Amino acid sequence: MKVTFKTLKQQTFELELKEDDLVSDVKKKIEAEKGNEFSASSQTLIHSGMFSSFISTKA
């Protein structure tokens, strides 16, 4: 499935994700796509107003 992401600078990009991707997998895919500026360890993902630490481990 294609998922659209928006950065804090209001830039958008899409990634192809699998239904069983974990949040950690998604962060690694973002880093691979966007480079070191978006290192997996520095990302905070927010979905529907919830931080990724409060979202289940499934993306």
Topology:
Blueprint (H helix, E strand, L loop, with lengths): L1 E5 L5 E5 L6 H12 L11 E2 L2 E2 L8
Antiparallel strand pairs: 1-2, 3-4
Description:
- It contains one helix and four strands.
- The protein has one helix spanning 23-34; strands at 2-6, 12-16, 46-47, 50-51.
- Helices cover 20% and strands 24% of the residues.
- It has one domain (2-54): Ubiquitin-like (UB roll), CATH 3.10.20.
- The longest helix is centred in the middle third of the chain and has 12 residues, at 23-34.
- The model has no long low-confidence stretch (mean pLDDT 86).
- The protein is an alpha+beta fold.
- The strands form two sheets. A two-stranded antiparallel sheet has the order 1-2. A two-stranded antiparallel ribbon has the order 3-4.
Count of separate structural domains:
1
Reported CATH architecture: Roll
- Give the uncertain stretches in residue-range form: none
Kindly estimate the percentage of residues that lie in beta strands according to DSSP: 15-25%
Distance between the first and last residues' Cα: 12 Å
Give the CATH superfamily.
Phosphatidylinositol 3-kinase Catalytic Subunit, Chain A, domain 1
Rg calculated over all Cα atoms: 11 Å
Helical segment tally? 1
Instruction: Write down the overall mean pLDDT.
Output: 86
Number of strands: 4
Portion of residues in helices?
10-25%
Domain Ubiquitin-like: 1-49
Pfam family, one: ubiquitin
Protein name: Ubiquitin-like domain-containing protein
Organism: Opisthorchis viverrini
